[in-house]
Amino acid sequence: MSGRMIRQGAAVVAVVLTTTCGCATKEKQRIAMLEEANRTLTGRLNLTRGELDSAVRDRDELNRRLQAALSEVGLLGNQLAARPEPQEAAPGWTAVPGGAMIAIEGRVLFDPGKITLRNAARATLDAVRSTLEGEYADKDVLVFGHTDDQPIKKSGWKDNYELSCHRALAVLRYIKSRGVNNNTAAGGWGDHGRVGD
User: Fold this and answer.
1) Which pLDDT tens digit goes with each residue over 34-88?
2) Are 171 and 197 in contact, with CB atoms under 8 Å apart?
3) Structural contact between residues 175 and 125, judged by C-beta atoms closer than 8 angstroms
4) Out of 6-15, 20-29, 89-98, 103-112, least confident range
5) Which one of 29, 53, 83 terminates a domain?
6) Does 64 lie in the same domain as 21?
7) Contacting residues for 168 by C-beta, under 8 A, at least 6 apart
8) Helical packing angle, 160-177 and 119-134, nearest 10°
9) How many Cβ atoms from other residues are within 10 Å of residue 135's Cβ?
């Protein structure tokens, strides 16, 4: 009888040991999973910290640029405030800082796609010359040519810049030939510029 009790006790001990060993294995697995999750979260945290540091640096750079732009705006505002108001312009002219400008419709001066001044253009340019010699004799003269609405391939020019520059030169040469002695320059707007834009 005592032998049977001993055997039963051994069986109980064996069951308890097996159960205890099973719990220990599950606990180790759980700890391993938690450690892996901790490593993953730590990696994500480090990545997020790096992204945050980069965003803070970007923000600081943008703030620096903003402050520089605001300083420049203030400086330009002061310069603009210090400039004299445009004087009154001659009749038909528009006052601009430092002088005046006049815009002449291209069809008045040139036929589509051409650079030769029309006969009717000469009277218009003679009036401009007269104003330049009288009201603006001490001013530089800038002549900007424009194109027309004809496709450039029909006119034979390389591009709209070439056409507009040649038109500016035609006007400039005409007023110079009529006695304008101001310092002069010519330029072309191509197909993008519009007087008054």
Assistant:
1) 999 999 999 999 999 999 999 999 999 999 999 999 999 888 888 877 766 656 7
2) no
3) yes
4) 6-15
5) 83
6) yes
7) 143, 144, 145, 186, 187, 188
8) 60
9) 17
